[in-house]
Amino acid sequence: MQIIVDHLNYTYSKGLVYERKALDDINLVINRGEYVCIIGHTGSGKSTLIQLLDGLLKPDSGTIYFDGKDIFDGDYQLKNLCGRVGLVFQYPEYQLFETSVIEDVKFGPRNIGMSSLDTDVASYEALKMVGIGDELLDVSPLELSGGEKRRVAIAGILAMKPEVIILDEPTAGLDTKGRNDILELVNRLNRENNITVILVSHNMEDVAKYADRVVVMAEGKIYSDGTPKEVFADYRSLREVGLDIPEGMYIIERLREAGIPVRTDIMTAEEAAAEILRFISEES
Amino acid sequence: MLKEVTIGKYYPAQSVIHKLDPRVKLAGTILFIISLFPYSTAEVYLIASLYLALMIKISRIPVGYMLKGLRPVIILIIFTAVFSLFLTPGIDVVFTIGSVHITRSGLKKAVFMVLRLIYLIMGSSLLTYTTTPNQLTDGIEKALKPLNRIKIPVHEFALMMSLSMRFIPILMEEAEKITKAQSARGADFEQGGFVKKAKNIISIIVPLLVSATKRAGDLALAMDARCYHGGSNRTKLKPLKYSFRDFAGYVIVIFYFALIIASGQVDFIGY
């Protein structure tokens, strides 16, 4: 139990006409090394939750325990938290500001008080991890392509050596290659470096492919929580909260409805294709 | 942090003042501001206070919200008070602390300066709280239309104004987002020495400038793509038209101003 979210409540613009309850009694336990996807319609509270997880917002009531310690306790050093829980915002390339790529990546580790040597090594390693070559180290980050900028921004978080990495729609606005690069990178961080991953996504195919666990949020509450298969199996109620199921699952469901006896424990497009081929070859 | 700034924001509510023609509100605000300057007497400020309180009441804007708008300028107010209090020379000394004399005229000046500042801010915030930026620019554009005759591009000015006002909340939101993103990278905007703080502020300003420039370019391109070419022959979706309510508004505003002028001539209480 690395992260425990305990009866968390959060309201925006409390006491004004704009008042809006963003989180309503959220309880959640995230274990070390898990790959958790948070899905939910726009305004369901996902972004608020991840900002609270990084200590950037203060809850109205309830709290979060990280490694057994209450992060909103007065004595807790929130500054140390942002190094241990790395948060990659949506469109993180907008946060780049230094004169060179390597300097920008060093910003985070320097802030959390890493020694100069450690900073250099961690920054270089982080850039290698995200696949930025040596020839780009001294280039201005503004001259990079969209996908490169985003990878540099992610490296800026990885250089702080986080134990948990939270990503808010890291693939938004990228082309297929850029997307696959980032998702593979995140997957590698999770499997090889045992970093806990919390990923906010709107893409159900990605969720089905990578996540160990899916948390569905709707109107500031946790709507369902389980393995992708469990969560997506209940696709009718998912649709009620404005979410879809992966395309592969959708095809299989339609085939079942048409009376064709295909297997139902299928999520990705590849699995669906294989199952349909198997079915056809068995029939003929 | 930036959400605290309420000056210049629209506050949606159902009130007569919200529904008034923006030109009436503009004229009212300008006259109210002018009325605060010529006289520093208790009568004048009593009338101004009552008038402002009445307007706030009618506008249905919570008093707490109004007061919150003063928070960013509180330092300025304190400075003004302290300077007028200690640095006004005179023979009418009330009491002395060390070598500093506090004079009766200094006290009087401090009180009126502080009131003046507070009323200035509240009065003009009342305008922006009750008027959307679009209405406001429409009002200014229409009120200044005669200047077109002497070749002043009123429409272009109005457009620039409404664009900049339109972008204030967007840029504030963006600044907040970037601030959070940099905090997530361990940047501390409250503690640390001057150099470290300045360095951390740069980490907000540079990305903000980059994105503002990009937005401006995108906007110019979008306007070009829609063949926008300025004010001539453009019609309005909701043209401004005076109704009875607006004339009544003008009468109240002028009556207030006349009352101030009249009461400024006499000085019953003798302050």
Largest interface: which pair? A-B, 26 and 23 residues
Q: How confident is the prediction overall: mean pLDDT of chain B?
A: 86
Helix segment tally of chain B: 10
- Spell out the helices and strands of chain B N to C: HHHHHEEHHHHH
Major sheet details of chain B:
2 strands, antiparallel
Question: What class would the helix/strand composition of chain A place it in?
Answer: alpha/beta
Q: What Rg of chain B, in angstroms, do the CA atoms define?
A: 23 Å
Shape of chain B: flat
Q: Could you state the oligomeric state of the chains shown?
A: heterodimer
The helix count of chain A comes to: 11
Can you characterise this structure?
The complex is a heterodimer of chains A (284) and B (271). Chain A is α/β, with parallel strands linked by helices. Chain A has a domain at 246-284. Helices cover 40% and strands 21% of the residues of chain A. Chain A has a 6-stranded mixed β-sheet, sandwiched between helices. In chain A, strands 2-1-4-5 form a 4-stranded antiparallel β-sheet, with helices on one face. In chain A, strand 4 and strand 5 form a beta hairpin. In chain A, helix 3 packs across helix 4 (116-129), helix 3 (101-111) runs parallel beside helix 5 and helix 10 (247-257) packs parallel to helix 11. Chain B is mainly alpha-helical and 271 residues long. Chain B has a domain at 1-131 and 241-271. Chain B is built from 10 helices and 2 strands; from the N terminus they run H-H-H-H-H-E-E-H-H-H-H-H. A two-stranded antiparallel ribbon of chain B has the order 1-2. In chain B, strand 1 and strand 2 (100-103) form a beta hairpin. In chain B, helix 2 (22-35) packs parallel to helix 10 (244-265), helix 7 runs antiparallel to helix 8 (154-184) and helix 8 (154-184) packs across helix 9. Chain B is flat and about 70 Å long. The mean pLDDT of chain B is 86. At the A-B interface, helix 2 and helix 3 of A face helix 8 and helix 9 of B.
